[in-house]
Write a structure and sequence with these properties.
The protein contains 14 helices and no strands. It is flat, with a radius of gyration of 20 Å. The protein is 73% helix and 0% strand. The termini are far apart. Helix 2 runs antiparallel to helix 3, helix 2 packs parallel to helix 14 and helix 3 packs antiparallel against helix 8.
């Protein structure tokens, strides 16, 4: 899709909002907010709001840069063909400039209003997603999601550092949880949209290594996720509320990953195990981080007031 095509269709604010991938951003904002709320110490509510706003702006800017770079690929995939750039509603250069503006503004505002360590981590997360993952890893290796999973794992760490001003083991563990969660979450999706990736030459795991290998790795990551998710409780960083919920959710994740790992055919398209696992994986992360905040509320080790 060339920039000239965008001249024939009107652009409004909803197209630019779509560039920020609002559905993905909702999870980013939530985990960032939970990291902030669970952190020990005090942050003024206004500063806390600015911190979460900056996380959202940074994520949105990185998403816009992702779509700017991948516009040609998006136009070739059914799942993404109607996005603003391939749909001819936003010029490619406008998406690039929008993404850069959001990214720079988010880092600058975070540094000035919150603290510069949080701003530096936010900048790293943007570069990680827009450059390391989008430009370098995604088109080159089937491990793109594994290595690139770090891009989406930064928000709770940023929220935590916004409050404390330093990095400890707890925010590192929150990062690790999302890092380990990302491969089984995304590969579950990739299994039922792999034809799209194959058509445009993106080396996603199911395309390059095959379904059987992908399914085994989904199960392996699901199993490994359990001790990582429970680790904040093991080290004494949370109470039993978080620990019990983390273990229960992770066991459910493993149970749902079982049929995905064992599946060898394509029958039953309406309710594939992959779709069930993908849907649950989103719920899993929301529930896990909500449990983290609930645990802090009960045991009184943090929050805004």
């Amino acid at each position: 899709m060339t920039d000239s095509a965008a001249l024939y269709l009107p652009t409004d604010w909803r197209d630019f909002l779509s560039l920020t991938k609002p559905r993905v951003m909702s999870l980013v904002i939530f985990t960032g907010l939970c990291g902030l709320l669970a952190a020990p110490g005090y942050i003024h509510p206004l500063i806390g709001f600015i911190a979460v706003l900056c996380i959202a702006m940074g994520a949105g800017g990185a998403a816009a840069l992702n779509q700017w770079w991948e516009a040609d690929l998006d136009s070739g995939m059914k799942r993404t063909a109607k996005r603003p750039i391939p749909g001819g509603r936003v010029r490619r250069t406008d998406a690039r400039d929008f993404g850069i503006a959001l990214s720079v503004a988010s880092v600058g505002l975070m540094g000035i209003a919150v603290n510069w360590l949080a701003a530096i981590i936010l900048a790293i997360s943007i570069v990680y997603y827009a450059v390391i993952y989008t430009i370098w890893l995604k088109p080159r290796t089937p491990q793109n999601i594994v290595i690139g999973g770090g891009a989406g794992a930064f928000p709770p760490m940023i929220g935590w550092v916004a409050v404390t001003g330093h990095i400890t083991l707890m925010p590192v563990l929150l990062f690790a949880i999302i890092f380990m969660w990302t491969p089984p979450h995304f590969w579950a999706l990739a299994l039922f949209v792999q034809s799209d990736y194959a058509k445009v030459g993106i080396p996603m795991m199911p395309v390059v290594k095959g379904e059987a290998s992908t399914r085994r790795q989904i199960m392996a990551y699901a199993v490994l996720l359990l001790p990582v998710a429970a680790a904040p409780w093991f080290i004494g960083g949370t109470g039993v509320i978080y620990g019990a919920i983390a273990i229960a959710l992770s066991l459910a994740f493993i149970v749902l990953a079982g049929p995905v790992a064992l599946r060898r055919s394509e029958e039953g398209d309406r309710m594939k195990p992959e779709k069930r696992l993908f849907g649950f994986s989103v719920l899993y992360l929301f529930a896990l981080f909500a449990a983290l905040v609930a645990d802090r509320l009960v045991y009184g080790q943090g929050l805004l007031a």
